From TrEMBL:
Pfam families to which the protein is assigned, alphabetical: F-box, FBA_2
Species of the source: Caenorhabditis tropicalis
The protein's name in its UniProt record: F-box domain-containing protein
PANTHER family: F-BOX ASSOCIATED DOMAIN-CONTAINING PROTEIN-RELATED, F-BOX-CONTAINING HYPOTHETICAL PROTEIN C.ELEGANS
Ranges for domain F-box: 4-51
Length: 287
């Protein structure tokens, strides 16, 4: 039988190098061993790449590099497993190596547990949540909380699974869209009813709406965005002509890319009054 390695009996430079060589997942686990392993992981370990974190629904936090997940569940019976200390609170846990996950069982609801998990890992690795994936009728509480505690949120992805005929509650979806402040907003969710969001305004780098026809031309000309992609929304040639003139004349200053569908019979209306401004370029490439 091999004798254990007492990590902290080694010189500091050696045990720091050992922890540096661990994966993010292993560093997460070793942080629970003692206060010393936690403080060493938090303050002394070198990070060659930023730890990128994502959330799924309102229950799961995931490390993007390893796909390791922290799944938060409400405790409904006594769990005869290990306990870990999360921000001073002892929580039952269960590790599932096949799923590459740890389950945390909270007396409170899963949303509370997810918030505590986010506080723990963002503090441990000096990072923020990068992407939030809002699924299965999750409301805007977790998103609002994340946006309040960090200055920057890269992406919010709102989606439903069409293969399961999932439908997002219209009021929840509307509140998410109105409160979202991320740099990239991706809406791929079938709503329980067609949305109406008058006077909608957002400032972001990218807006993608794959499902839904609620975005009007007035909305397009109002929002401050670099890239806009609309899949289901169809504008008339007259509406797009008005937008193109608005864009050519200096409107939508930051907009670089715009995609929307238009009927093939609308081409004459589309470029009415701006024919002279069109420039056709041919590029040839040799292989």
């Amino acid at each position: 039988m091999e004798s254990p390695l007492y990590l902290f009996r080694l010189p500091q430079l050696v045990y720091i190098n050992v922890i540096n060589s661990m994966s993010t997942t292993d560093q997460f686990f070793i942080s629970f061993c003692s206060r010393k392993t936690h403080s060493t992981t938090k303050y002394l370990v070198r990070r060659f790449e930023k730890v990128v974190l994502e959330t799924y629904a309102d229950q799961t936090v995931m490390f993007r590099d390893s796909k390791f997940r922290i799944i938060n569940v409400q405790k409904n019976q006594e769990i005869l497993n290990e306990k870990v200390r999360i921000n001073g609170q002892w929580v039952d846990c269960e590790v599932n190596t096949e799923l590459n996950a740890i389950g945390l069982f909270w007396e409170e609801d899963p949303l509370f547990g997810t918030m505590k998990s986010i506080e723990y890992v963002t503090d441990l690795f000096h990072t923020d949540i990068s992407t939030m994936n809002l699924l299965e009728n999750v409301d805007n509480r977790l998103m609002n909380w994340v946006q309040q505690r960090q200055k920057f949120l890269q992406t919010v992805n709102i989606s439903t699974d069409n293969s399961k005929n999932e439908i997002y509650d219209a009021e929840k979806l509307k509140n998410i869209i109105l409160n979202c402040k991320s740099e990239e907003i991706i809406i791929d969710a079938r709503s329980s009813e067609e949305l109406e969001i008058p006077n909608y305004y957002v400032k972001c780098n990218m807006l993608i709406c794959s499902i839904g026809k609620w975005i009007t031309m007035e909305t397009i000309m109002r929002i401050d965005c670099e890239e806009i992609f609309l899949v289901e929304t169809k504008f008339t040639g007259e509406e797009l002509n008005r937008f193109l003139k608005h864009w050519i004349n200096g409107g939508s200053l930051r907009l670089k890319t715009f995609y929307a569908a238009v009927g093939t019979d609308s081409e004459l209306q589309l470029f009415d009054g701006i024919e002279k401004s069109r420039k056709l370029e041919h590029k040839f490439y040799e292989v």
